[in-house]
Amino acid sequence: MSNDAATAEAEGTAETVTPVPEPIPHGLGASLPPADARAKTEGTFPYAADLWAEGLLWAAVLRSPHPHARIVSIDTTHAREMPGVRAVVTHEDVPGTPLHGRGGHADRPVFAADVVRHHGEPLAAVAADHPDTARMAAAAVIVEYEVLDPVTDPEQAFEAEPLHPDGNLIRHIPLRHGDPEAAGEVVVDGLYRIGRQDPAPIGAEAGLAVPRPDGGVELYLASTDPHGDRDIAAACYGLSPEQVKIVVTGVPGATADREDQGFQLPLGLLALKTGCPVKLTATREESFLGHTHRHPTLLRYRHHADAEGRVVKVEAQILLDAGAYADTSSDALAAAVAFACGPYVVPNAFIEGWAVRTNNPPSGHVRGEGAMQVCAAYEAQMDKIAKKLGLDPAEVRLRNVLATGDVLPTGQTVTCPAPVAELLQAVRDFPLPALPKDTPEDEWLLPGGPEGAGEPGAVRRGVGYGIGMVHMLGAEGADEVSTATVKVQNGVATVLCAAVETGQGFTTLARQIVQETLGVDEVHVAPVDTDQPPAGAGCRGRHTWVSGGAVERAAKMVRTQLLQPLAHQFGMSTELLQIADGKITSYDGVLSTTVAEALDGKELWATAQCRPHPTEPLDEAGQGDAFVGMAFCAIRAVVDVDIEIGSVRVVELAVAQDVGRVLNPAQLTARIEAGVTQGVGIALTENLRTPRGLIRHPDLTGYALPTALDTPDIRIVKLVEERDVVAPFGAKAVSAVPVVASPAAVASAVRAATGRPVNRLPIRPQAAVATGT
């Protein structure tokens, strides 16, 4: 600054320099902030629990206190006579098809009629003019039970009396691949148990039902599959799908199908019966009792390997505990069996997989279902091979990793990018974190936290690896299709697509796609309801792929409409014109105009669909091209373990992942970090205990979620952008596979630190106490 300028500034006469605003992120590849971020931080986001309607009634659901019982009688007289009670409904009040369920299995009643099959199963529902009245009336329903012995051990389900008219066996998949007589020089065995995890959404389930003049009903729900929920509700209410409308409200976090139909369906019944709007907000206890959980799994493995550590044959038995109803257990079992050998080349594989009913709480779709359970087991087996041969665990894995062009045990050729070796090498070669100093100032570094019970001299550091794989979209012939409409009017674009924003970032992605394709800055994504064409459930990365693909196609059709008049005017094809930074230019520079000028008051719109290539069901030998695409992740875990008391602190997780293409860097990083953190909870703390089928401590005190203090340093050391040519934009789903790999990596690191086998998740303190201590 010159002396004159300095003097002028000091005297207050210098000109004010207006700062240049930061450019707003734009299009694919930019870290565009979520459109709902401000509303959520300010507390104005429209969650279902905040909804209101004139003449509102409140609902409550009576749930079974027993995991297994015969219902002798249900007496609703006292509840109906209570002042303020407007309606009480039971199984006798379900007018249509009384069964519902997901995954193609309609095996679950709206209300238990003759038999209670799990703790928390709905028996009746009440509508009253005050929430306290509704709860007291639900408690006043008198149910006489004949308590039965519950079947809670899935191994006993094979010989037990049928718990359901459809029997106890939901599905059996025998996979046969290669030579059954093949054998290796080294054989390792393992028995592994994976506990039950809960999705534990930030907000418990809530909903509002409003009767319609045509005799139908509108449901305002945090649904992740509105059209699927509508069809189930319509069948149970005895209505046509057109008479039931679901409006999706703000979803308070979802890892997949988080909604509890055990209160959704009674909610609509009460609205139809009373002719009034009815609202229900579940307590945290009701949330734990109502929605589905991750499948507890028992796994028996035997690996054969040669003297160099190369796997020759894998034999495994996988048993999924589906709980009382089938839900999505068939899909989870298919993933578990297909990926039972992991992202490794296994020439001979013989896997038996079963999903069975028990009187435990129902299991369903939770992020990485099936794949997470087997990953913990096959990675433990790889550690055992390395230990038996005296080899480095990472080296043993590198000698076996899968690559593009290899064949899965299902017989399907891996045609998508599979840079597994590159991912593993990246995390293996990443510098290790510094060792903690044995000084009082650094006591917070000890397992157990500040002033923990452990001693620095008892702490051992371990390094372990986990490599996970998941499939994207549906499998085994599922018709994955989504429809989207893009409209442009007055320079503003609107996207209509029934893809629900569950936190995976679809609405942000849709805005980026339209910005990239049309050069329009202002893009709005319309609220979701079932008046729009279906887009399917919000899981397995399908909205990034299928719904994003539909938005892209619709936007490209609008782009053609926009460019055709200009191309015709200058005698060229639309392919010779490009849109960038809000401008339209031709390849030779003759044409140069803005998008706003080209629109000039026009209204353009187009509707398009995206449907990936078809898949096929696994056959009687577990063979078939069952998956559209796959994603992979490698994680190196570093842990500190107090080998005297068994406490574990995860120091660092180094992550390398194949993502196809980075569409939103900030959003992608957040999704990976969230998945890794969820995996830490699965590894160390999250275990929904159900002794004799009863959910113990159904709250966030008894169910220990990892907090910010439990989250380790997460280092994303490499993102491999090798585009999948069959996927729109070439991108892959990123959320599920870190959940799959991180628990296995943490368990591997604890094994390295303690020398213990660690064959159960979550890891119990006694399993982390070193031998001889």
From TrEMBL:
Task: Please list where the region (Disordered) is annotated.
Answer: 1-38
Tell me which domain of life the UniProt entry assigns to the organism this sequence originates from.
Answer: Bacteria
Q: Which Pfam families match?
A: Ald_Xan_dh_C, MoCoBD_1, MoCoBD_2
Output compositional bias ranges, type Low complexity. 1-16
Q: Where is the Aldehyde oxidase/xanthine dehydrogenase a/b hammerhead domain?
A: 42-149
Q: Which SUPFAM superfamilies match?
A: CO dehydrogenase molybdoprotein N-domain-like, Molybdenum cofactor-binding domain
Instruction: Spell out the protein name for this chain.
Output: Xanthine dehydrogenase family protein molybdopterin-binding subunit
This protein's species is Streptomyces salinarius
